[in-house]
């Protein structure tokens, strides 16, 4: 059987793979992107509620988690958010800043995928979907891929297979297995940017409040904190505050939630009990909190009646329930709904400049498959663009 020869094969036609393929094809490298899914960029299409939060005005290494926090510096500084925004502008794709520097398409995430495919086509890169890779062999010079569509060989192999989240969208552990095949460490994987589930005890008292959203400050045991919206659901706690903190949470740990950031309940009670002493505690709390949530705190901390009648002990109970509520999640919703996989291929044996493996010349890892995880807010796509670009300059 004949073996089709390529200079570069990129496995995975998602955000990072497409970007890498565009760049390598532009350099005149005969480039093939392989993917087992039926269409490219599926996660781009479903991202940002269908509008793709494609980058952020404020990209810095501090927005990323990795065992080596410096790893992202080079790629992020050589292909920046401004470079990607310039590309989006060149295609006249309308976009807007939603909040906190997060840039979303005005119309549809399809605009981004269409742009990337046009770039790939213009550069002369080839795309082959619905192809399963059965094995990756290696004769020391060339990689030899056995696929359901025939055998292929290449001098440079780029692994852009992403993480494990949303298995129904084509996620697989292929990249991690290939990394191990070449002696790379894969750091412990975990679903992240993901909602939390209730423990059995909290479920009983909290799930009736589902649908309520409120700004909170949530802190992890390592001190990382976010002040953002939290959404109470039947299953647990969700919303941007919870997704962000999930990057910093380990199973078995607790989170601390302040349901009224900026209002110190103890101090406020002391100040208001004289002038507003006849108000019920519930009525008083509804100046800041949704009524059902205020009722919940009153019931749970067993403080009935008027402000003036509260004992010191009751005031403390109420304030700790509202300002310092320890939440011990039962777990998370897992890869079914997670936006990313935390950790991945250890960056210690990867060049931060080129994304090339130090174990095998010509082998590259880009995007989410690496041990690089961004915050919610366009950071993960920027990593995909920047790391894909970096490998695309040399592969
Ligand atoms: P990506 O997952 O995009 O691509 C991997 C590709 O490899 C896929 O096409 C897959 O089919 C293919 N593949 C996997 N295994 C294979 C195999 N064995 N053989 C062949 N092909 C294989 N980020 C952000 O910055 N802003 C946002 O708005 C969002 N929103 C968002 C919403 C949802 C619901 C999710 C799940 C995720 C996000 N993200 C996000 C995260 C973002 O989508 C993610 O970090 C990037 O898509 C990662 O890009 P990659 O190219 O590394 O992987």
UniProtKB/TrEMBL annotation:
The RsdA/BaiN/AoA(So)-like insert domain, residue ranges: 190-340
Cofactor: FAD
Protein name: Uncharacterized protein
NCBIfam families per record: aminoacetone oxidase family FAD-binding enzyme (TIGR00275)
Claim: Flavoprotein is one of the keywords in the record: yes
Sequence ranges assigned to domain RsdA/BaiN/AoA(So)-like Rossmann fold-like in this UniProt record: 7-393
Pfam families the record matches: HI0933_like (PF03486), HI0933_like_1st (PF22780)
Entry keywords, A to Z: FAD, Flavoprotein
Taxonomic lineage of the native organism: Bacteria, Pseudomonadati, Pseudomonadota, Gammaproteobacteria, Oceanospirillales
């Amino acid at each position: 059987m004949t073996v089709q020869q390529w200079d570069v094969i990129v496995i995975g036609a998602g955000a990072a793979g497409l970007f890498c393929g565009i760049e390598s094809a532009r350099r005149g490298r005969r480039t093939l992107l392989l993917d087992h899914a039926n269409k490219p960029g599926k996660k781009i299409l479903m991202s940002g509620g269908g509008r793709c939060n494609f980058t952020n005005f404020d990209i810095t290494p501090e927005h990323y988690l990795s065992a080596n926090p410096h790893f992202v510096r080079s790629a992020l500084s050589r292909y920046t958010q401004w470079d990607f925004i310039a590309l989006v502008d060149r295609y006249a794709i309308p976009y807007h800043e939603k909040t906190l520097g997060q840039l979303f398409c005005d119309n549809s995430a399809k605009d981004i995928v269409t742009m990337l495919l046009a770039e790939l086509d213009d550069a002369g890169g080839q795309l082959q979907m619905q192809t399963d890779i059965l094995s990756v062999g290696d004769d020391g010079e060339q990689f030899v891929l056995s696929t359901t569509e025939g055998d292929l060989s290449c001098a440079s192999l780029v692994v852009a297979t992403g993480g494990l989240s949303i298995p129904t969208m084509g996620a697989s552990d292929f990249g991690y297995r290939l990394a191990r095949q070449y002696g790379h460490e894969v750091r412990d994987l975990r679903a992240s940017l993901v909602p939390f589930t209730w423990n059995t005890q909290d479920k009983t008292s909290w799930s009736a409040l589902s649908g309520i959203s409120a700004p909170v400050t949530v802190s992890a045991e390592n001190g990382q904190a976010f002040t953002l919206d939290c959404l109470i659901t039947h299953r647990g706690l969700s919303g941007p505050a919870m997704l962000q903190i999930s990057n910093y949470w380990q199973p078995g740990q607790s989170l601390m939630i302040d349901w009224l950031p900026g209002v110190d309940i103890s101090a406020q009670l002391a100040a208001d009990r004289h002038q507003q002493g006849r108000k019920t505690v519930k009525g008083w709390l509804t100046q800041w909190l949704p009524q059902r949530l205020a009722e919940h705190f009153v019931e749970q901390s067993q403080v009935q009646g008027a402000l003036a009648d509260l004992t010191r002990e009751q005031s403390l109970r109420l304030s700790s329930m509202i300002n310092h509520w320890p939440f011990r999640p039962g777990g998370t919703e897992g890869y079914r709904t997670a936006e990313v996989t935390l950790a991945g291929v250890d960056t210690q044996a990867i060049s931060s400049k080129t994304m090339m493996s130090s174990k095998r010349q010509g082998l590259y890892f880009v995007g989410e498959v690496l041990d690089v995880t961004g915050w919610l807010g366009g950071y993960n796509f920027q990593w995909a663009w920047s790391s894909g670009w970096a490998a695309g300059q040399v592969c």
